[in-house]
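Our collaborator T.R. sent over the components below with a one-line note: 'Predict the complex.' Nothing else. No constraints on interfaces, no templates requested, no preferences about which chain binds where. So this is a plain run: every listed entity goes in together, and whatever single assembly comes back becomes the starting point for the next discussion.
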Amino acid sequence: MDEQLAENVATVQQQIAEAARRSGRDASEVCLVGVTKYVDVATTRALVAAGCRTLGENRPQVLWEKSSEMQGLDVRWHMIGHLQRNKVKRTVESTALIHSCDSLRLLKSIHQAGLQLDKQVDVLLEVNVSGEAAKHGFSPDEIESVIEAVEPFSGLCVTGLMCMAGLGSDEQDVRREFDLLRQLRESNRANVPKNVDLRELSMGMSRDFEVAIEAGATLVRVGSSLFRGLR
Ligand SMILES: *Cc1c(COP(=O)(O)O)cnc(C)c1O
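Returned assembly:
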């Protein structure tokens, strides 16, 4: 298992580097978030040993469990899935970044949890770029007003935007959706409150992370490609 994982991590890192080079970017601008939702703690530990130190989970309870079982390892946990307000406090305690903030009520809860823990929680605003009804996230035209509305939320810092490409999107649609996220970042970057700094773009999964990097991604969330060939 360890050898296969090391090979998969190396392959993905190389694909990241090549996509960055193609688009005139430095590979160090792109962080691989290894999505471990498919695997158990042992395999997650092996992924860390293979060099992947930023991990993403989409279910809060699993993130809490794994992060507490793996305490002491040099790992940063990212919450990438839908988060309910009653799970905010424990999630804020165990994560470095919450990608999937999709309502003002959730942002307010995160702010309050941040104040209680005396920390400024880094978060991304999830944007529904495909317009698919089943997708979470703010609509693109809400982002400007959301950024204004978070100004009093001193317990958090909005460090960027996040999206998922539409399920039914072909490569051209995907490219357009990722371009839209980058343009939203550019058009909202000026005159932001001091707890907003849109440096991160979280976009791209196994099937489309290279397109995402070409479009400007700084965080790619890759799961299945890392676990290929394991049994
Ligand atoms: C599962 C998941 C991923 C990773 O998907 P793969 O296709 O396995 O790479 C990325 N982002 C989110 C939000 C996910 O839930």
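Summary for T.R.: Residues 35, 37, 58, 80-81, 164, 205-207, 221-225 surround pyridoxal-5'-phosphate (CB under 6 Å).
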